[in-house]
Each structure stands twice: as C-alpha cells, then as structure tokens.
Amino acid sequence: MKRLMLVGQTLSGKTTLLQKLRGLPLRYQKTQSLECEDLSIDTPGEYLENRCLNSALITTSYDADIIGLVHSATAIQQMFSPLFSSAFTKPVIGIVTKADAPDASIGEAIAHLANAGADPIFVTSSFNGDGIDDLVEYLSETKDQQALALVTERN
Fold first, then answer.
1. 99: how many CB neighbours lie within 10 A of its CB?
2. Contact at 8 Å (CB) between 67 and 40?
3. Helix (H, G, I), strand (E, B), or coil: what is residue 109?
4. Backbone φ/ψ region at 125: left (φ over 0), alpha (ψ -120 to 50), beta
5. Could you give all domains of the chain from N- to C-terminal order, each with its CATH number?
6. Beta bridge partners of 122
7. Which residue intervals of the chain are DSSP H helices?
8. How far apart are CA 9 and CA 78, in angstroms?
C-alpha cells in the first residue's frame, strides 16, 4: 500500500493535517515515534530537529510514495536546510499549516519550503479547511493508491 510521509518540526501540525485529511475529529496527539499506517507515515518532529535522526527519515521514506515537508506559518525558526528534499528519492511537496493563525507568516513559510526544494507548495488550515481541497485534488491526480484512499476516506 502506498503512503504519504509527513516531515516537519514539533508542533508544525503534521498529525492534525492527517486527521483533517481522514475526516477525523481534530485533537492534539503528540507523535512519539514513527507511526506507520496503511495510508500515511507520521514522523515525530524530533526526527527533523536532531540531525543525527535524519537518516531515520531518509530510510523510512523508502516506504512512502510522496513526501510532504510541513512548515507552520507560525514557526519562529525553520528546520529544513537548502535543498533538503534532495535527500529523498520520491516526489516532495510542501505544506504550509496554520495559515489561519493571526500571526501567520505565510510568505515566509512558502519561501522556506521552496528553499528546501518542495514543489508544489500548498497553504492549508486544518481548523477551517482552507487549502485542504487543493491538497486532496493534487493527491488524487498522482493516481497512487494512498492518495485515492485518502480522498475516499475523506468523502
């Protein structure tokens, strides 16, 4: 089964985004370890924040079909090095989360993801649903099983 793997720093909204894509109730749930499911791979932010754990992200990415670099529009710092996406052998997209926050810096988040090599980049809000349909449409166009399963589950 094909999967979407989300990579981002702690509190960037990876788990909440997956909950929204699946049509589940939104609730905070700290990801403590790699959570591999049929439809997705949710990674702890610490795997990105501690460079010595980046190899675990790269190794795990072999089980994914699409890598999503997640960056919160409210993040004070960015964790993706320039061309970070080149470490992966799969397509890498960017996902800006928390776009609805009053202190959101959407342009800055987009710039960080573009610098990391993510393309295309989606601007989303899991709470009000902004950008979710565009992301789902893109995932549907990829024609992979994981994306189609996410769309089916959501509807």
1. 22
2. no
3. helix
4. beta
5. 4-154 (3.40.50.300)
6. 95
7. 14-22, 46-49, 54-61, 106-115, 132-141, 145-154
8. 8
Q: Which residues of 23-59 are buried (b: 16+ CB within 10 A; e: fewer)?
A: eeeeeeeebeebeeeebbbbbbbebbeeeeebeebee
67 CB neighbour count, 10 Å cutoff: 27
Q: What is the pTM of this model?
A: 0.86
59 within 8 A of 89, measured Cβ to Cβ: no
Residue in this structure with the two tokens 């089980």, named with its chain if needed: 63
Tokens of 120: 């295309």
Q: What is the tens place of the pLDDT at every residue in 45-77? A: 999 999 999 999 999 999 998 999 999 999 989
CA distance 111 to 138: 20
